[in-house]
Amino acid sequence: MDITKLWQETLLLLEKTLTDVVYNSMIMKLSPIKLENNTLYLSVESSFFKTAINSRYLYDITRCVRSLTDIDIEVQIESPNDKTTEETIKFAENYAKTNLRPKYTFDTFVKGKSNEMAYAAALSIAEQPGESSYNPLFLYGGVGLGKTHLVQSIGNFALEQNPNLSVVYQSTESFTNELIYSIRDKTTQNFKNKYRRCDLLLLDDIQFLERTVETQEEIFHTFNTLYNENKQIVLTSDLPPKELGNIEKRLTTRFGMGLIVDVTLPDYETRAAILEKKLHLERLALPPAVKEFIIRNIVSNIRDLEGALNKVIAYARFTNTPITLELTREALKDQLEGAEKPIITVEYIQQIVADYHKITVEDLNSRRRTKDIVIPRQIAMYLARKIMKNVTLPQIGAAFGKRDHTTVMHGCEKISGELEYDAKLQDTILDLERKIVGEE
What we know:
By secondary structure, the chain is α/β, with parallel strands linked by helices. The chain has helices at residues 3-17, 20-25, 47-56, 58-67, 86-96, 116-127, 147-161, 172-184, 188-196, 213-228, 249-255, 268-282, 288-297, 302-319, 325-331, 333-337, 346-356, 361-365, 371-387, 393-399, 405-418, 423-437; strands at residues 31-36, 39-43, 74-78, 137-140, 167-171, 200-204, 232-237, 259-262. β6 (200-204), α10 and β7 (232-237) form a beta-alpha-beta unit.
């Protein structure tokens, strides 16, 4: 068997399977050595890359190789310095100080309309920490939307490119506690050295700074030190900097010096992609009706979506029954009934309407005038006007691609008029209202 040809064909499959980031930074570092005793030996330049590929991508490589042959070939990764563990040990010691979790990578992160700008900015920073204009990078959005996953992906990718990089990931709450302990134990200089001498600082949930004046003071000096030395800073929050009310203005202005990006609710396509990615990683399959039910009903955030899938799988295993739509309804009954009512905004209504009509929020806000876009757009305007009593017509118009209030008025009147005789539209509006207020 020609292993060079086999590997080239495998690369073509892997290029379609993995993200461009992983393919270019990891897979392209591999070279075929030999095929012996049904084992394909591949070489990579260092033990570090060998460890990373073995832990994350060996399954995909093996699957693609086997799809091209008639035998169950095993894949083994080797590196020239396998005989020494010095490099691996050194990296392990450095990695242990980062607080990062290996599972959070760009490869396991699902990019969609709700997070594509945040993803692009994060990747740019991971490739060249401190060298872009995105310093600091400030990501904000609701809980469970992937901010922590994305920010840790930056750290993991940066370390894959430079294993000696000093990276620190920390939640703001843990940062505060660590500061308190260092004052108590008289080790504040060690604390300062840890955070002010790192190359990449990833600080999660910065909104909790509101509670602690002392922590704000320490963050201020840490920020200035790192920024002045061109070290990369990445922050996450549930609110944008200007809405962090109890944080000093000298801090919030610094948080906004680089790039501020919001991460919003995942749309239907993104939720579907997240579910498929999770099933791929777990090597599981679900009936189409079950997947559709989960995607349609779990709309709050990514964390709840993955939790719902785990619950269905566990329920099936515990009851020793196949996964069906009926079983899924039963497994998620409490979760759906006990779910917190959503915070209703114009953007939330847009997302529900867009999902219902299998289009995107971007379609609703675009200038397109086709019937499949105009009607959902007018429905969304009508529902926003009906459900959100305190929102004005100009405010609704601004949310729909900066449209004039008269456009909103026309859309609302058109839907209102057609509801008097269109039974199908009546059912649609009723169904959407229930979804928006969380009654189903």
